[in-house]
Amino acid sequence: MMNFEQMEYIINVANEMSISKAAEKLFISPSGMSQSITQLENELGIKIFNRSKQGVTPTFEGKIVISKAMTLLNTIKELNKEIYECKNSNQTHLKILTAPTFTFILQETMVKFNSENQNITFELIEQNPTEIIQNFNKENYDFALIPASLDDLKKEKNIHFEHIHTGHICIAVGKNSPFYHHDYVTPSGLKDSKLVMYNSSDYKKVIKLTKPKLNQVLVSSNSSSLLYKLVKESQALLFLHDFSIKKSSMVINGDIKIIPLKEEKYFPVDFWLIYLETKNLTKVAREFMDGFLDNLKKAFNL
């Protein structure tokens, strides 16, 4: 009898027209996938695929089997979503995984959301964007917020993603910084600058261009208050995204200034909401995200 795993295999092979590409997408060995499909063909007494040097194509009987498998898997996914939503319709706790760049706006949203829904509690976990993608399937998070490329997200299994913003990499500096009055800075212009850095941040592209020496990094910490204090009172700079603290009092009153990083063009970054396809977003999570996105939009209308 055809199982869920075999259904997923034949659907992906049909989409990719290649066993090796489908196996790579599902992170299994091509030989293991091929053996499983052959076993299914033997059990059904038909050929599902024609295999040739040009690729893999469904047979007439195979198209029928693949169509039924798609219908069954979609039905199962919808059923899982309905069961999850039913179980969590009165949800009172949100478990959120986030990159550090979202923390300030998330905290602001939590305070307002809790004042309007006093029975709601939150659990907020900060991680490096790479770790978020690796760990998201392993824990029972309601959703995650992450800077990432579309190509990276497409590689992930069982994750649904929604684009929420395109921003830019910037630096935060205090009044003592030589960059404070600049309209923008370039990576080459930062090569000898003192830095403070989030432990959980992922600015590989920028670090590769600026190539800081070990003695240039004054502090590496997950304490945002410590990092902002150092930026405010020293010449050190902090890499962050354009909206991260734009609404904070220290930016509004001028103690800290956010300056875009520019080479031939500004450094664009796409930001995403991600959640498991099998869970979807609960009503409470969607309402919270509506409030978060509203605060995110306000960050660009000071």
UniProtKB/TrEMBL annotation:
SUPFAM superfamilies xref list = Periplasmic binding protein-like II (SSF53850), Winged helix' DNA-binding domain (SSF46785)
Signal sequence, start to end: none
Domain HTH lysR-type residues, every copy: 2-59
Which Pfam families does the UniProt record give? HTH_1, LysR_substrate
Task: Please provide the record's keywords in A-Z order.
Answer: DNA-binding, Transcription, Transcription regulation
Keyword DNA-binding appears in the UniProt entry: yes
Superkingdom in the source lineage: Bacteria
Per the record, the similarity remark reads: Belongs to the LysR transcriptional regulatory family.
Q: What is this protein called?
A: LysR family transcriptional regulator
